[in-house]
Write a structure and sequence with these properties.
single chain; alpha+beta; 2 domains; 6-stranded mixed barrel; two-stranded antiparallel sheet; about 20% strand; elongated
Length: about 375
C-alpha cells in the first residue's frame, strides 16, 4: 500500500524518468566508446609489433598484461654498414626515447632500384634487426635471406646486387658474415638464418628480446612508461596502410570527446540524484507521519524510506537497460554497425554509490 501510493505520485514518476534517461545516456555513450575503441584497437593490433628489450628476462612481467598476446622470444643482429652490398644512401637510427644515435645522408647517390640500409631499419630500434628461423631448413649456416616490406620490395627490385653477395652483421659485438640467398616480402625489416645457427645463437644471446601483439591503442603509451620503470625498453613499430592512420587518429579524437561527454553526464547524474533523493524524502513526510501514527518504530520507518529509494533506483536501471538495448538494436540495424551492451563496471560503481546515498539519507531522516 505504501509503495503503491509512492509510485503513483507525479514527483516519483518524474524522478524515475530523469534518472532513467541519464542512465540510458551513459549506457549509450559507453557503447559508442566501446565500438570506436574496437575499430582503433583492431587496426592498431594488426599493424603494430611490440618489441621489448632488457638485460634481464622480462617474460613473466609481460605475461601480466592482458592486452599483450603472442609473446615470442627473438634473436637480433646489429647492422654492419661497412658492406656495400646494401647501398649507403641514407639511414637514421634512434633509441627507444627517439634520440638520434647515428645518421647518414648522401643526396648524390641514385638508388636506381637497389636496396638501401634505410630499408632494413626499424624506427627507434637502434641498429638492431630481428632475426627469424628458417623453418623450411633450406639455408646453410653461412646463408641468409633478407626480408623487406612490400613497397620497398617493389621499388627496390634490383635484387641481383644483393643475392649471392656477402653481407655482415654484429652479434654481441662480434662480426658475423653471410652469403645472401634471397630477398623476400615481410611486414617489417628482418633476416632469416638457418634453424641450426638460430638455435645456437639464441642460447648465446645475452640480452632478452621479445615481440608481442599489442591489442590496445590507448594502453600502449601507459605500458611503455610502466615497463620503462622496470628498465625494459619498449618499441611500438606501427605500419599503417593507406588511410588507416587517419581513421585511428579521427576515432581516437572522437573517443576522447565521448569520454568527456560521459564524465559530464556522470557528474550531472550524481548532482541530480542527490537533489531527487532529498526531494523524495521531503515529499514523503506525510507518509512518515502516517507510519508513526500507525505505530511503526524508527528503524522500520527508516527501512521503508530505504526500500522506496532502492526500488526506485533498481527500476531506473531496469528501464534504462531495456531502452538502451532497443536503441542499440535500432542503431545497428539502421547504420549497419556493431554496437553492443558495454561492460557494467562503471554502472555497477554508480549503483553502489547511489545505494550508499540511499542508506545515508534514510539514516539521517529523523
Amino acid at each position: 500500500m505504501i509503495l503503491k501510493s509512492f509510485f503513483k505520485k507525479k514527483s516519483t514518476k518524474i524522478c524515475l524518468m530523469i534518472t532513467t534517461i541519464l542512465i540510458s545516456i551513459i549506457i549509450l555513450l559507453l557503447s559508442f566508446i566501446g565500438y570506436f575503441n574496437s575499430i582503433v584497437d583492431k587496426i592498431y593490433s594488426d599493424r603494430t609489433l611490440l618489441i621489448a628489450m632488457s638485460k634481464n628476462d622480462s617474460i613473466n612481467l609481460l605475461k601480466k598484461y592482458n592486452h599483450i598476446s603472442n609473446i615470442n622470444k627473438e634473436l637480433v643482429f646489429k647492422l654492419n654498414f661497412d658492406y656495400d652490398t646494401i647501398i649507403k644512401s641514407s639511414y637514421l637510427t634512434k633509441d627507444e626515447n627517439g634520440n638520434v644515435l647515428d645518421s647518414y645522408q648522401d643526396n648524390n647517390i641514385d638508388l636506381n632500384g637497389r636496396i638501401s640500409w634505410d630499408d632494413l631499419i626499424i624506427f627507434n630500434f637502434d641498429t638492431y634487426i630481428l632475426v627469424k628461423k628458417d623453418n623450411e631448413n633450406k639455408l646453410l649456416d653461412d646463408e641468409i635471406k633478407i626480408g623487406i616490406n612490400e613497397m620497398n620490395y617493389s621499388y627496390h627490385n634490383k635484387h641481383e646486387y644483393v643475392v649471392n653477395h656477402p653481407l655482415g652483421f654484429y652479434f654481441q659485438n662480434e662480426a658475423i658474415e653471410f652469403n645472401v640467398k634471397d630477398v623476400y616480402i615481410s611486414q617489417r625489416p628482418e633476416v632469416t638464418i638457418s634453424s641450426n645457427l638460430y638455435s645456437k645463437l639464441l642460447k648465446q644471446q645475452k640480452i632478452y628480446v621479445y615481440t608481442a601483439k599489442e591489442n590496445s591503442y590507448h594502453q600502449a603509451s601507459k605500458l611503455k612508461e610502466k615497463l620503462k620503470k622496470e628498465k625494459i625498453n619498449v618499441i611500438h613499430d606501427t605500419l599503417y596502410f593507406q588511410d588507416e592512420s587517419t581513421i585511428v587518429s579521427h576515432n581516437s579524437d572522437l573517443i576522447d570527446i565521448l569520454n568527456l561527454a560521459m564524465y559530464i553526464t556522470i557528474i550531472l547524474f550524481f548532482i541530480i540524484t542527490i537533489i531527487i533523493l532529498k526531494n523524495i524524502i521531503e515529499d514523503i513526510n506525510y507518509n512518515i507521519d502516517l507510519e508513526k501514527k500507525l505505530g511503526f518504530n524508527k528503524i522500520r520507518i527508516k527501512f521503508n524510506i530505504f526500500e522506496r529509494l532502492l526500488i526506485l533506483n533498481v527500476l531506473s536501471y531496469i528501464l534504462a537497460f531495456s531502452i538502451s538495448l532497443l536503441f542499440i538494436k535500432g542503431i545497428n540495424k539502421i547504420f549497419k554497425i556493431s554496437l553492443i551492451i558495454p561492460k557494467l563496471n562503471i554502472l555497477f560503481i554508480l549503483f553502489i554509490i547511489v545505494l550508499g546515498l540511499n542508506i545515508m539519507l534514510s539514516l539521517l531522516k529523523k
